[in-house]
Amino acid sequence: MATTKPFVSPTITYETMEEMLDVKPRGTSLFLGIPKETSFKENRIALTPEAVGVMVANGHRVVMETKAGEGASYTDRDYSEAGAQIVYDKKSVYECSMLVKSAPVSESECELLHLNQCIISPIHLSVMKREILQKMMEKKITSLSFENLKDDTGHNPIVRSMSEIAGSAVMLIAGQYLSNANNGKGVLVGGISGIPPTKVIIIGAGIVGEYAARTALAMGASVKIFDNSIYRLKRLQNNIGGRLWTSVIEPKILAKQLKTCDVAVGALNSNSGRTPIVVSEEMVSNMRPGTVIVDVCIDRGGCFETSEVTSQEDPIYRKYDVIHYCVPNIPSSFARTASQAISNVLMPLLLEMADNGGIENLVWLKPNIRSGIYLFKGSLTNLYLSERFNLKYTDLNLIMASKR
Q1: Which one of 41, 279, 325, 347 counts the least CB within 10 Å of its CB?
Q2: Which of 90, 89, 36 minimizes the C-alpha distance to 67?
Q3: CA distances from 399 to 23, 353, 370, 379 (A)
Q4: pTM of the prediction?
């Protein structure tokens, strides 16, 4: 064991170091571009005229392509009076430092993107292509997706709003195709005195399933709900209040109930990848003629084996004489309501982003925003996309930690 004492030079002085604290960055002015969507049959717009007016009043600049709000029944005049600059060339919109879109970036739009641009838009995992991701990575793009954006409570506010719209719309759609006007079997959704109520089967007890159940019950229908999560079934039961018939997804019980139903709703949720198929073709073939299937989860492949993607122009087809409605992106059919819901989330987020000096500083200060970032300065930060397309994955938390 060493017996010598350490030598400390008398010329060395020791001083207490001051603690270094984060200083809030200075605010910045945003340069927002809102293009007109031409893909995915998209009618929504990410910011309403009222939201644009707030952004402009706070010193931000907004450039819009002409007729961008037409699908949601907003005119160029509405946006012009709110302070937006209306342009007639799509390229002019893509010169903005930040794009706010209501549809994913398409291959043709990739050519218009420029270096270090920021994009806030949906991602639509089911239709994302490797080529689009690679081009965005090459241009050092930072992208925030609607689907994965979380608020301070850890919930997905835009997904929830769109799910509420889709769930509420389901029974309106089903009622339309049960009527004789659309060659349905002439059944009124719900019921009247002396006549048994319409039987509705809902597969999935998430937000879509809950709002579909609320609407169906309000119309007087008999509702039965299937889900493999006991927690979601109990939550739905407590939220609605009334006693509902609920069950886990057991194939024999589900098949028996489907045989006698009038409306079947596919509302299963999938965190990543394809929605599991829980209703086989044989089950569909045993359903009564004229029954309506509304597969809300067709965006992720659908939970009925017989589901095939349809369009708003040709929304239904018949298989085994069962009517299938499989239009993806149902909220786009109610574009004005959906646009207002999206705008209510994005406008405060954009103001907060500007107050904190831009999206990079906001991601550093608010970890919950990181879940929505799938590209950060060209680095792919979404593990699912990395595995699916065999592209290099970068942990965003490590990027943020390196800034400290």
Answers
A1: 41
A2: 36
A3: 19, 19, 11, 10
A4: 0.86
Give the residue with greater pLDDT, 310 vs 191: 310
Closest by CA position to 136, among listed 154, 117, 150, 155: 117
CA-to-CA distance for 337 and 77, rounded, in angstroms? 19
Distance CA 211, CA 118 (A): 34
**Residue numbers annotated as active site:** 124, 299
Cα distance between residue 354 and residue 54, in whole Å: 13
| pLDDT confidence band for 10 (50 / 70 / 90) | low
Q: How crowded is residue 325: how many other Cβ atoms within 10 Å of its Cβ?
A: 22
- Tell me the two tokens of residue 376: 């950060």
**pLDDT for res 300:** 81
Q: Please give the angle made by the CA atoms of 399, 402 and 404, to the nearest 5 degrees.
A: 125
Beta strands 316-319; 98-100: pairing state: unpaired
Three-class secondary structure of residue 341 per DSSP = helix
Cα separation values, 291 from 135, 181, 196, 248, 262, Å: 45, 15, 16, 22, 5
